[in-house]
Amino acid sequence: MANKKRVFLIILDSAGIGELPDAGNYGDEGSNTLLSASKSPFFDCPNLIKAGLFNIEGLNDNSTVCTPFAAYGKAAEKSAGKDTIVGHWEIAGIITDRPFPVYPEGFPMEVIGEFEKAIGIKTLCNKPYSGTEVIKDYGSEHLKTGYPIVYTSADSVFQLACHEDIYPVEKQYEMCEIAREILKGDHAVARVIARPFAGSEGNFYRTSNRKDFSLTPEDDTILDLVNLSGYDVIGIGKIYNIFSGRGITREYHTSSNAEGIEYIKQLQKEDFSGLCFANLVDFDMLYGHRNDVDGYAKALSEFDRALEEIVGNTAEGDLYIITADHGCDPGTPSTDHSREYVPVLCFGKGIKPKNISVRDTFADIGATVCDFLGTRKPINGISFLDEITK
Question: Which strand (E) or helix (H) includes residue 149?
């Protein structure tokens, strides 16, 4: 390890900044997650505005500033898809050429039958469903029969919901590991997700014991490259699950944005060198998928209040990059992810406040991280470090 540097790469999960040219192929014309949220009366983000968020092409707002404190721009998704895994992997240097499989009619018998045989019991549902609605509609039957609830969504996911009184969390994780082994080849979904719930009939609720079982990246990501150079790689939120733990030296599970933000602040005070990779998922999970514009705006405003302190705690040798992994526009009829550009804001001591324009791929972000830390770069992406450093 040649020098002592830190990168804080913060993902505002789903905070897209306008439709990509091929959005029509995904049914996402007109999507602009940040623009929708900014129209809420609860949107109050003076620090993101000062950073240059509204200077980025696509927001068309009157909140541009003459002297932003960050470098700003946006990045296009080059991969096929608009999913969490696809977005994060591209940021980390892997471009996915073929979309992961989705199941709008539920999983075929060759999958669900093999899963039921492996776990020794029938399942319920097996169709696309809202995670909160599925436990309302199937929770009582699950309690009576003990049959696990299996469902999917518009994303490439196999989700398992069981009451924690019927199946302990570890047993639910075990069933998900079985599903992960089955879901290979043509049925290699991006994620198998345990969605434990609790409560009684009419008052079921999902607990914080969610766990993702993702596909493992086939090539080295920036997490591997930074790790191999002797640096720390710290994952906050679902980063560990998204990359199946590869390259990560330390991880912090979170149950909310607030908890993730606190870990970021804590790590700012620690003497580490390397990458802190954080995902703040509430934007997507609690507000984007539920078409809650005001909730999304409030969550952005809460992050903005924390950003002031984060900026104040910036040290020499730090680079901060704030971006997203896809869109999930709460202002459109769809409750699914949306195919959008993502914002890119970079700041730190010695970072030029300039327009880095439109990047061809999310992978430019990962290439810049590796360039800053002096490690080998990923196979995809072009660093913009020279553009933003003095």
Answer: strand 149-152
